[in-house]
Design goal:
By secondary structure, the chain is an all-alpha fold. It has two domains: 9-55, no CATH class; 62-177, Up-down Bundle (AhpD-like). Helices cover 62% and strands 0% of the residues. 35% of the residues are buried.
Length: 193
């Protein structure tokens, strides 16, 4: 059961309603995250376009963006996020086998570029809450940061870091909200349940 009531799209007007209608047209329904955020229409109006900018096409290839986001969901033990991120990854051509490989942490056979993205994702997800600023000021170990810097140009690194950060926030939001799944369950070996 969700922590807060889910708003109805019919209660929205103006810009928030237009954004909600565009989302519904894209997904065929109003997702639970949106319905929760719609309780504050002015926040929802900027949320969905921002999220599209983070998760949508950019300079960073979809496979890197999708598998990194999926790893964030798995590391946060968030079924709702894993459901959404695996659905997005599958739509963008990521195989279930690769999804399971990413979730398991068995990355030896992956390209150096994808492995660097996943190592950066894992550290940026797990270390900042556990390691003091004095110990690790950048939130990731210097060698992991250097590998990411070597593999990605400035814009790609910006996109990757923003994506990791946003999905960490959303996975935590999703967990505390307690949303019912509104997309298919993530594949076996990826679903945190």
């Amino acid at each position: 059961m969700a922590l807060i009531p889910l708003a109805d799209i019919e209660e929205l007007s103006g810009g928030p309603r237009e954004v909600a209608e565009s989302g519904r047209a894209q997904y065929g329904r109003v997702l639970n995250t949106w319905a929760a955020i719609m309780n504050k229409p002015e926040l929802f109006e900027v949320y969905l376009p921002f999220l599209r900018g983070v998760a949508g096409p950019g300079r960073l290839e979809a496979e890197v963006k999708d598998t990194s986001a999926l790893l964030v969901a798995v590391l946060n033990n968030c079924r709702y996020s894993a459901s959404h991120r695996s659905t997005s990854a599958a739509k963008n051509g990521v195989s279930e086998e690769l999804m399971r490989q990413v979730a398991s942490g068995e990355w030896d056979g992956l390209s150096p570029r994808l492995r660097a993205a996943l190592e950066f994702t894992r550290e940026l997800t797990l270390l900042p809450p556990q390691v003091s600023y004095g110990e690790l000021p950048y939130g990731v170990h210097p060698e992991v940061r250097d590998r990411a810097r070597a593999e990605f140009d400035d814009v790609e690194l910006l996109e990757l870091t923003m994506s990791i950060s946003v999905w960490n926030a959303l996975a935590r939001f999703h967990r505390v909200m307690g949303f019912e799944l509104d997309m298919p369950v993530a594949p076996a070996g990826v679903d945190p349940a």
